[in-house]
Amino acid sequence: MIAGSKHTEATKRRMSAAAKQRPPPSASVREEMSRRMMGRVFTEEWKRKISIAMKGQKTGLGLKRSDATKRQMSRSQMGHTVSDQTRLKISQSLKGRYAGPLHPMYGRPAPHGSGVGKGSYSDKGHWVRSTWERQFADTLFAHKIVYEYEPERFDLDGIVYWPDFYIPGIDTYVEIKGYMDNRSKEKIDRFRSSGKRLEVFCRSDFESLEDSIVNRLGVHHDRKPET
Known about the structure:
By secondary structure, this protein is an alpha+beta fold. The chain is built from eight helices and eight strands; from the N terminus they run H-H-H-H-H-E-E-H-E-E-E-E-E-H-E-H.
């Protein structure tokens, strides 16, 4: 496509019909495409060209869908599960592409706002990256347990790790995980091997978060909140 070119409605219909008749790529073709994209880094000039080419086109980001479309998409995904093998393939294909400085959120604070890709605001008065992190932070704050949010990054032999919380009173780091993949496990294992104490809170811990905090961290509810 020529950057900035406009197609007539008739041309768009012909292109759409041709695309629907085109057979999907084979497994070998998809694997080759994935291999070529693995670890690829786009230059600023290439990003600029993509931006110009996509100007004026509708994408999924920010696209408004009707209620009927949402229901149809929901029905199509109902009962659909992703196998562990598929999760592993996805994890391996993304490994290295968004790691460390390549990640768009590398070195940046938690985003502000609400919705997909946005952060949540804690009772203590700072932004966090998820509702689970907000629930954890609010529980600590309510019980006057002093904590720091994302206090520092650690370079673990080429793997960058940024723990979610640090509780100075017990010299312990805390990680909030909804899903534990191989890369996350590798980071956690390396961090613990460095001699740091790290507690990982998963979905089951949030069923009774206050009890989990007391039992897992051994903290008491008698510390004053930071001013």
